[in-house]
């Protein structure tokens, strides 16, 4: 009944716990931890920024205008994008503590009702995390007009979803390119870089928690090294290099270098790689801890490192080869090899954070029905965000090896990662401008100012990266396009399948016309039918009883659905209702999960207990209600058994289970008792219904799953037939079964096959 993997105490989790109320000691501890997880990528950017910038577009001359101009660009880019945009603005747009592109999209879906998830309910809007405290939807002026426009036009909703997917995909692809670039530099040849990459991906299945204690010390040591070397170079070679921080040097740089300087911006862009991780990994830390770590440790260390390199290069103008502009040439010769060892460790830490972030992105896409189901292994029993996806891990490894062997040129790899990074930032800027209007209820002028200010800066870098499309920048575009097609095909097929279920569901009148026995033989036990529908009777039930006119005395229509929030509290887990009159013994149970929730602890005894709690809490007036349609629409919010302080508990008599040798699969019976609290509010009819439910549970549970084959209906266009009959069918056959399906006992599971013509 339970997935046999390490599981965490999910039911004890509560969003009422917030880090904001913790002491400064806790905040500083989180800031320390974030250095190893969030900033490993950003802190290693000095390894390749100057080298990529001076690759071939511009030359380092004795006037120092080029090196001063690059330093000025680096300083203001680090100040405006990571510090101003992310630390002071974007981090505030968290989705109940969660960050990333999907967090912004989730906020917009809730405040403008533009979600493409087809099974939304009004009851979902009452969830604890659905409405963020202090934030209200825009209800006046241009904000209201914009929200109405988005809600009315499906095309705009699909464009918004596509934009979010593009940002997500390029975020993952940029991670691939950055992993390669970090292990591809002067002292590491291609074979050795490939060995390091294989070893890095091999370690993933152990989980980040096993080596996590090494992350922060490595990054802190690295930041101390580059800042100390920077200070040494500044005082030893050029104490006046600080003058280059003036924006005037950017103007002089572009005036002198012109087109070459504009093209070199693709190398300067690499100084902010990893900035998106501050927002994407927000769920593991807190806003304040990430702000403290960047503002007081990472930002000053990076500025000192870049100033130190510029100070050294301003006194060394003889260029013997490409590596003369690299990072290690500015390191004192006696310290070069120790610094190299620390740099490799820091690069591995940064790569680890990128790979783990990619796993989280794929999990979110799967939860929102935008990516085929994959195997998700939770590597930590305490932190739900630490996951491992074997298929994605080995795919990333093969792609990284292909890029490393195929390019062999760090310049081309830098071009590829630069385009991917700036695309993610542009998407974040666009979505953030909508959040300012629709979620923060600010003026459209403020949103447009944010869009034009940061969008113009990022568009400048985007154009410089795009001009190098044929020199490596095509790689992230090609990979993202392939993954986007996969996501589109899967999402389209999933939506068409759900639409077929809705259009072919059985009406309640059909059920009522069958009478209390449903026109079939009712046998002892509980029949649990899994369905994606949140209302009505699934066609799979009528298909089943037509071919086999017998069913269990208690029928449960069970639905597991995701809602556009990070987490759902255990107290709000289930929606339970009744279908038809009480005598029919037909119930609907909807289990709700957030896109960051874990489905490892699927225990179907909980469903029986939630139904029992629903029966106990149901008022006696419900039995007098004659409107069955209204009864179906009424659903009660029921928590998991661990949240029932005074409700019904369940007790299994394991000692009564008898095991004996049999020739065919047989499930041993359990004696089940519901511990009902003494309460005069439970009437005689409810107690009789609870008694029947207990006897049915003791007799056993049967699980009915629909196994559907989706085919394009006759007369469909050629493109639709290709997408549905070949694309979606291939992905469906090669994707993993739902995680909860593996917890169904095989001896009690029955699959009912149907062909869906969509």
From TrEMBL:
Membrane topology per record: Multi-pass membrane protein
Domain K+ potassium transporter integral membrane: 30-512
TM segment ranges: 67-88, 155-174, 186-204, 211-235, 260-280, 292-312, 337-362, 383-407, 419-438, 445-467, 473-493
Highest taxon in the source lineage: Eukaryota
Predominant location category: membrane
A Gene Ontology molecular function term of the record: potassium ion transmembrane transporter activity
Keyword Transmembrane on entry: yes
Subcellular location: Cell membrane; Membrane
Stretches assigned to the K+ potassium transporter C-terminal domain: 525-757
Listed InterPro entries: K+_transporter (IPR003855), K_trans_C (IPR053952), K_trans_N (IPR053951)
Name of one Pfam family that matches: K_trans
GO cellular component terms, semicolon-separated: plasma membrane
Keyword annotations: Ion transport, Membrane, Potassium, Potassium transport, Transmembrane, Transmembrane helix, Transport
Alphabetized NCBIfam families for the sequence: kup (TIGR00794)
Similarity annotation: Belongs to the HAK/KUP transporter (TC 2.A.72.3) family.
Role according to the record: Potassium transporter.
Name used for this protein in its record: Potassium transporter
Species the sequence originates in: Sesamum radiatum
């Amino acid at each position: 009944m339970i997935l046999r993997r390490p599981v965490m105490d999910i039911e004890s989790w509560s969003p009422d716990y917030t880090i904001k109320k913790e002491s400064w000691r806790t905040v500083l501890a989180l800031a320390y931890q974030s250095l190893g997880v969030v900033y490993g990528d950003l802190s290693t950017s000095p390894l390749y920024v100057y080298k990529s910038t001076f690759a071939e577009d511009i030359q380092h001359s004795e006037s120092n205008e080029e090196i001063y101009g690059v330093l000025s660009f680096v300083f203001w880019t680090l100040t405006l994008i990571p510090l101003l945009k992310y630390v002071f603005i974007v981090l505030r747009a968290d989705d109940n503590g969660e960050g990333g592109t999907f967090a912004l999209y989730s906020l917009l879906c809730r405040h403008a009702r533009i979600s493409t998830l087809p099974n939304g309910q009004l009851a979902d809007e009452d969830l604890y995390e659905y409405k963020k405290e202090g934030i209200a939807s825009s209800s006046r002026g241009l904000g209201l007009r914009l929200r109405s426009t988005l809600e009315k036009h499906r095309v705009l909703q699909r464009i918004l979803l596509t934009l979010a997917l593009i940002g997500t995909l390029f975020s993952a692809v940029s991670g691939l390119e950055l992993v390669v670039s970090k292990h591809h530099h002067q002292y590491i040849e291609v074979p050795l870089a490939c060995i390091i990459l294989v070893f890095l991906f091999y370690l993933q299945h152990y989980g980040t928690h096993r080596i996590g204690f090494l992350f922060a010390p490595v990054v802190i040591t690295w930041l101390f090294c580059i800042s100390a070397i920077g200070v040494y170079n500044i005082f030893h070679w050029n104490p006046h290099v600080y003058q280059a921080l003036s924006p005037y040097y950017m103007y002089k740089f572009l005036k002198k270098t012109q087109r070459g300087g504009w093209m070199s911006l693709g190398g300067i862009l690499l100084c902010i790689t990893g900035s998106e991780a501050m927002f994407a990994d927000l769920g593991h830390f807190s806003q304040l801890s990430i702000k403290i770590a960047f503002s007081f440790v990472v930002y000053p260390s990076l500025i000192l490192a870049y100033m130190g390199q510029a100070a050294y290069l301003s006194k060394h103008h003889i260029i013997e080869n490409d590596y003369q502009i690299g990072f290690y040439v500015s390191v004192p010769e006696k310290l070069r090899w120790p610094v190299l060892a620390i740099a490799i460790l820091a690069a591995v830490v940064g790569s680890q954070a990128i790979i783990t972030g990619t796993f989280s992105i794929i999990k979110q896409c799967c939860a929102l029905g935008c990516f085929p189901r994959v195997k998700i292994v939770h590597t930590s029993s305490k932190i739900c965000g630490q996951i491992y996806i074997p298929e994605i891990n080995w795919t990333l490894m093969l792609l990284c090896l292909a890029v490393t062997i195929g390019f062999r040129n760090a310049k081309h790899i830098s071009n590829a990662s630069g385009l991917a990074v700036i695309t993610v930032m542009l998407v974040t800027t666009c979505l953030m401008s909508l959040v300012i209007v629709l979620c923060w209820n600010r003026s459209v002028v403020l949103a447009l100012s944010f869009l034009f200010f940061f969008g113009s800066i990022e568009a400048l870098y985007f154009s410089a990266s795009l001009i190098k499309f044929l020199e490596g920048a095509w790689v992230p575009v090609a990979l993202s396009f392939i993954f986007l097609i996969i996501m589109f095909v899967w999402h389209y097929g999933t939506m068409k399948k759900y639409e077929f279920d809705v259009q072919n569901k059985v009406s309640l009148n059909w059920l009522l016309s069958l009478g209390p026995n449903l026109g079939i033989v009712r046998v002892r036990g509980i029949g649990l039918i899994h369905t994606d529908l949140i209302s009505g009777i699934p066609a799979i039930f009528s298909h089943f009883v037509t071919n086999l006119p017998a069913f269990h005395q208690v029928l449960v229509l069970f639905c597991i659905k995701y809602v556009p929030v990070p987490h759902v509290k255990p107290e709000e887990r289930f929606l339970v209702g009744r279908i038809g009159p009480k005598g029919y013994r037909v119930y609907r149970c909807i289990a709700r999960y957030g896109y960051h929730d874990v489905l490892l602890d699927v225990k179907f005894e909980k469903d029986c207990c939630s139904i029992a709690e629903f029966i106990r809490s149901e008022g006696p007036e419900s039995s007098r209600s004659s409107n069955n349609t209204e009864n179906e629409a009424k659903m009660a919010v029921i928590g998991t058994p661990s949240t029932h302080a005074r409700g019904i508990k369940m007790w299994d008599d394991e000692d009564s289970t008898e095991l004996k040798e049999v020739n065919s699969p047989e499930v041993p019976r359990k004696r089940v008792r519901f511990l009902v609290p003494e309460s005069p509010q439970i009437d005689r009819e409810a107690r009789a219904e609870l008694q029947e439910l207990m006897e049915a549970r003791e007799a056993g549970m049967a699980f009915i799953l629909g196994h559907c084959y989706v085919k394009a209906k006759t007369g469909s266009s050629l493109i639709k037939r290709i997408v549905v009959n070949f694309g979606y069918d291939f992905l469906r056959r090669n994707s993993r079964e739902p995680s909860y399906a593996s917890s169904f006992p095989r001896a009690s599971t029955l699959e009912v096959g149907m062909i869906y013509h969509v």
